[in-house]
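pinning this so it doesn't scroll away 📌
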Amino acid sequence: MLEGLFTALSTLLVIIVILYLAYIATKYVGKSAGFRRYAGNSGYITMIDQMVLGQGMSVAVVKVSERIFLLGVTSNQISLLAEFEDGEWVERPLADVTPMGSLDFKDIISKIKDRKR
């Protein structure tokens, strides 16, 4: 009897530890993905921002030297949508932007619960 209770409690403890570690991992991954700036190996080309519009489609803002390009990116091609001089483009600080990846695990779960209601 006592041995069965000990086994049940130890199993419960292991499940709680796994859930806690999953919570910490998703919180860390979500925050780091949301605030990550796009970094490449080039010193001349910088990816300022990118927004995914759908499967295989996105819009990217790229800075080359002092010129800024708005690019449409699909799985088949890259198209120039607009070109800006450095003074024409106003970059918002990251504090003003609320990326989807910055939500905590608790916030994501609550949004899913609210969506099902």
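📌 and the second one:
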Amino acid sequence: MGVSDPDTFDPGRRFRAEVEASRLLDPMPGLNVLADALGIPVGDVVHHVLVRWSGAGSEALLAAPPEMLAMLRDATTGGDLERARGIVDALLAGWDPPA
């Protein structure tokens, strides 16, 4: 899936605002503690976190409560079709249906 227009993928700039706000926090102390406790390189822990996060869209379908589906419900009941489209795009990002 190629997203050429960020405003289509992230209407209202919600995700981009969250990314900007997260820059105020440093995740490394917690990741360093975890890596040290497990005796593995912190880079491996960071990689694992990113893999788990990037798979969260598909996992949201199995989770209870499914955060992404709740966001989708809120967008559709609020009549925010553009936000609903962005959430669907996020859920399907990187997924190609079988041929």
